[in-house]
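Predict the 3D structure for this chain.
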Amino acid sequence: MVKLRLTQTGTKNRKTYRIIAIEEGKRRDGKAIEILGFYDPLVTPPKLSVKRERIDYWMAVGAQPTPSLLKLLKQP
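Done. Predicted structure below.
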C-alpha cells in the first residue's frame, strides 16, 4: 500500500519537509516513489507548495495520507 507523508529535509535547526508518495513499510527518509511538494513551517506565513493533481491521482488509486498531511492539505 502507498502512503502520502512528510519526510524531513534541511538542517538540524532549520527543518523543512517534502510531501512524498512511498510504500507503507519504508523508512521515513527512504526512497520515495514520487515527490509531490514541500512544506516550510519556519517562514511567516508557512510555505506549502503541492502538485495538487498528482496528490489527487495518488488518492484516487488508493494511497492513504497521514493525519499530519491531511491537516496541511485542508488549510486554506
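Residues 52-60 form the longest helix (9 residues).
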